[in-house]
Design goal:
Length: 358
Amino acid sequence: MIALSSEKKKLGIGLMSGTSLDGLDIAACYYDQNNDKYQYKVIDAHTIYYSDSWKNRLLQAENLSGRALQELHIDFARFCVQEIITFLKRKNLKPDFIASHGHTVFHQPQLGYTLQIGCGATIAANTGITTVSDFRQTDVAHGGQGAPLVPIGDLYLFSDYEVCINLGGFANISIKEQNQIIAYDICPVNIILNDLCKKINLPYDDQGNIAKAGNVSSELLKQLNELEFYKQKAPKSLGAEWVRGQITPVIHQFEKEINVQDIIATITAHAAIQIAAAIPSNTKNALVTGGGALNTFLINSIQEKTRAHIYVPELNVINYKEAIIFGFLGFLRLNNKTNILKAVTGAKKDSCSGVIHL
């Protein structure tokens, strides 16, 4: 057990809603700073899986009018409030703060904007707990990608690993060299795989068994691997709009001649290739977390293509690493410390980002 005992120790709640629409992750953690060292300790964590109604509302958010989107912004915050209060009562916890990522509707950093819904003021007012939200926009305003934000947690909380990879809706990577870090989004993963699995009445590809039994289409794989994004240098980031504009049309070209199982196999192969290629050749170990870490076939496929040892940690870290780190981002923000790194996002400057609602 980690002993956290400094005066700076705080109990925080990290909230994360990812692009794969699995659900709302809640992680209660103690965060502590001793000199320049940061530590965390998970007290409890839980996922609230979205109902079909909530999945549909979040999926259709980008098509709403301004008025309807604002209503969803508040409604989603109220949903978060209900789940936070239930979680805290069940665990008898009294946190010092909440750090909420919100749910991304738009992410267009090249146009200067990004939008995560789930009003922080509503969460703070209805829980009575100081809430930090809207972590991405300051970095975008400074010319950055506003993503990925997890790497600062990789640098300070998971320093034992040279590379950290998260397999969620998208795969992203943090690469540490000489106490510096570069990071970027690699490719889509569960945002596509989960959507394809729905076509065969499954929520996701359990352990990658569908992909394992399928056949890879060499032509579809070739077209996916030749997409322009993969030729771009970091920093770079992905959003759902990119998937719909770049990946979905390619898949549609093949749907009449390739069954869903084989498309899933091909997307999985594509992800494994891109993820393995992103791991530097001299890497000794790589920590892999996120829902995709439970896709055994995908993990084995990545391992076959890299010399680095792919390490899959305990379930709490696999499932809740992003929520843990967003809690850490809130801890840093409340202590007026840098929580977004220009080396990762490409911004003009590091920033201490997040709107504080007392």
